[in-house]
Write a structure and sequence with these properties.
With 538 residues, the chain is mainly alpha-helical. It has helices spanning 3-18, 30-45, 55-70, 98-124, 130-146, 153-171, 178-209, 214-221, 226-246, 256-262, 265-290, 295-318, 327-350, 358-383, 397-400, 402-416, 422-437, 441-466, 473-476, 480-483, 505-523, 526-529; strands at residues 80-84, 92-96.
């Protein structure tokens, strides 16, 4: 062999290796990368920032989330893909399509409003370590932004855990709070169980198909050998059970009320919106994109779960006592379980009709995110003077803070689906229509009954806002108070409300932003309806 031939031999040997090098579309992955980079910067900065300037870390977190949201603007046309197979550039692990961009915007806005609520919390609560709090919040937001763009099961599971693991710590981060620690433990155990079940299902699906990419799985499930069909069905079912935990679908919802009550209020708001969006986007990806061949398996299962979830959530919310400690947060927690049932309806309907039905889930999730974050923002305001969190603490709120009362009343009417909360009504009608169009008349009837049930507790809370505030017990009957029989432990007498403190600017900003967004969407619901028409996976 000549010297020239010997020199060319390494080049020929290296050529196949060079083909394995993938290019990365940094613009496509910018939103989660920016959030993750901001989290790392805040973690390092926390080592050098003095205690009296720790509030700057919160402002840095808000700025990081704003930049992550701005990174979505160049992607608004969709069509960006990266981390694709060398042999087939159409099979990718990350896709910034229309569906991913909508969910990324939702979760980042949810994290931004949570950060605004947390600025006030970080100043008031000395038991909450600021640096760790902001790092965990941004880390969870980065995972939440990654998940809707994931197009293989490995990336999907990793993104789900990146979003979930920091959330455990956020729930139990408050030092010396037993309720917070108990809530974090319940949340952790239930989520770990869900992950274990999901990973078992993913392993079964991989064994049956030999691929982790969602589109490849969909193709290969069409031709699964007969001896592997049972394994594939078991994998599909176990994967759905794992996501049912994440979405708080009944009977996998038991962790929700105690977790919401034990967590700091902004964290509860974050879990109710961003956590739910993450779970449902993952569920949409595995059912509609990866498992369309087994629609006869997951379609009926999700329909039953939807009926059970909305019924359990609304009935439990209906039974909340107005004088019980933390009854307001518990009502919002059970309400979120009921709303999860509504969100499941269009996904189940997609198994019987077309993928376009999932647009109803996305539209409903957008409505729910805006108004639920607003409700938690007002709850954070009321908790500054009434930390007990009872529904009775909201009695007479209109006399003390008219704007907060009107905002909360509007949010509750949106959740109930009553005018002037037009966006809530439109969202419920679209979900109801998806069930009817798919031939699921029985599910539409169950949903109608649950909407009526929900009207009662939403209107009861709304009415409390405009009733006269209760007078102090000493003013009403100073002598009779000593002769009154003791109340049960869970039924405490309404306490006189203290004079309201000055409204912090971040908290006021969160209330105003969510109120303006809800009003605009109610005045122009076509802004959200455009996501219902056509396919989101383009």
């Amino acid at each position: 062999m000549t010297l020239a031939a010997q020199a060319a031999e390494p080049v020929r040997a290296a050529a196949p290796a060079a083909n394995l090098v993938q290019s990365v579309d940094w613009l496509a992955i910018a939103p989660p990368v920016v959030a993750a980079a901001a989290a790392l910067l805040i973690l390092v900065a926390d080592l050098f920032v003095p205690q009296k300037r720790k509030h700057l870390l919160g402002l840095g977190a808000v700025a990081g989330l704003v930049v992550a949201l701005a990174a979505l603007l160049p992607l608004r046309g969709g069509g960006h893909k990266t981390f694709c197979l060398v042999a087939d550039a159409t099979v990718c692990s990350y896709a910034a399509d229309q569906f991913a961009l909508v969910i990324q915007a939702l979760v980042l806005v949810g994290a931004l409003v949570t950060a605004l609520l947390s600025l006030t919390l970080a100043q008031d609560d000395t038991n909450l370590p600021a640096g760790e709090y902001w790092f965990l919040l941004l880390s969870s937001a980065a995972g939440a932004a990654l998940l809707p763009a994931a197009r293989d099961l490995a990336t999907l599971v990793v993104a789900l855990e990146v979003a979930s693991l920091p959330a455990f710590a956020l729930v139990g981060l408050r030092r010396g709070d037993r309720r917070s620690s108990e809530a974090a433990l319940k949340f952790f155990l239930s989520s770990v169980t869900a992950t274990a079940v999901m990973l078992l299902g993913v392993s079964f699906v991989y064994a049956a198909t030999g691929s982790l990419h969602l589109t490849e799985i969909a193709t290969r499930l069409d031709n699964v050998p007969a001896q592997l069909d049972t394994l594939a069905q078991a994998g599909v079912a176990l994967t759905l059970v794992g996501f049912a935990f994440k979405t708080a679908a009944a009977p996998f919802h038991f962790w929700v009320p105690d977790t919401y009550v034990g967590a700091p209020l902004p964290v509860a708001a974050y879990l109710s919106v961003t956590g739910k969006a993450v779970g449902f986007s993952g569920l949409i990806l595995v059912t509609v994109v990866a498992f369309p061949s087994y629609a006869d398996v997951w379609g009926p299962a999700l329909a039953v779960l939807a009926a059970l979830t909305m019924t359990v959530g609304n009935v439990a919310a209906l039974r909340q006592s107005a004088t019980r400690a933390h009854s307001a947060i518990r009502l919002l927690a059970w309400s979120s379980v009921g709303q999860a049932g509504y969100l499941l309806v269009p996904i189940a309907a997609a198994a019987y009709s077309s993928d376009a039905q999932i647009g109803s889930t996305v539209a409903y999730a957008l409505m729910y995110a805006v108004v639920n974050l607003g409700a938690f923002a007002v709850a954070a305001l009321v908790s500054r003077t009434s930390p007990g969190g009872r529904l009775t603490d909201y009695q007479g709120l209109y006399a003390r803070s008219p704007l907060a009362a009107l905002a909360l009343g509007f949010f509750l009417l949106c959740l109930a689906g009553l005018p002037p909360g037009i966006i809530g009504l439109v969202a419920k009608v679209t979900v109801f229509s998806s069930a009817v169009d798919a031939g699921l008349a029985w599910l539409a009837v169950v949903m109608a009954v649950n909407v009526v049930i929900a009207l009662y507790y939403y209107l009861r809370w709304t009415a409390l806002l405009f009733r006269p505030a209760p007078r102090a017990a000493t003013e009403e009957a100073p002598q009779a108070a000593t002769d009154a029989p003791p109340r049960p432990a869970t039924e405490e007498a309404p306490r006189p409300v203290r004079a309201p403190r000055r409204l912090p600017a971040p908290l006021g900003t969160a209330i105003v932003l969510t109120l303006v967004a809800a009003v605009v969407l109610s005045g122009a619901p076509q802004l959200i309806l455009r996501f219902i028409t056509g396919s989101l996976f383009q």
